[in-house]
Description:
This protein is mainly alpha-helical. Helices cover about 75% and strands about 0% of the residues.
Amino acid sequence: MRTDADVTATPSAALDPACAVAVQPLRFVPGILMGLIAVAMLIHGPIAQSVRYHEFADVSVWLGIGHAADVLSNLPFAIVGIWALWRRRAGVAWTAFDAALVLTAIGSAYYHASPDDARLVWDRLPIALACAALLAAVRSETRGTAELPMLAALCAVAIASVLWWRVTGDLRPYLLLQGAPLLLVPFWQWQGGAPRRARALFGIAIAGYVAAKACEVFDHEILAAATVVSGHTLKHLLAAAAALMIVEGRGVERRVR
């Protein structure tokens, strides 16, 4: 008969011996890949923001709100974050992730109402914090790492990455942090024996994020083709849907355990 200790054991302990043996040689692969990407970025040199970054396709005005579609399309982030905070008591890192979603809605809406670099800080900062919290939460769950110290360290890195961009104009640290969950989380989930549905939901989240970035790149072209919605507005909606998949995946892991 299973005891409570069996159910709440570390995820890696849930793997059968054969699977554990197969996983062990690959445990350092994510870190190696991230290291190689960081080295490639160093060799590449600074990555600057486009001089036309603030020239969004959406110029709609509604109830006195400029760029109304880009502003109001941030509402789903707040809805997902508030719902996630309300529906469960999670660890501190997951709570930080949920709170960062709410702050993303506020910061991004503030930025899009009158886009410039000064306001963009408040858009990018909660996004960076959400990435940091996601990494800390999944690492803690799948590898047994102490949650609070890792969260504090990663949040410090998140803040530093945004400040580095603001001071130097170099996006490399921010981009590396934003891309890290796409590579590290699937590896950690697999290595830690996360439930299949949780891994599938995160895979859907990755697909949604990639689609969101594509919509961002083709902001003007999408508005020209669709006439009623811009690419950046769709980016917000797709990214919020991706966040919802992450929240749902976390719910699966909690129910299984």
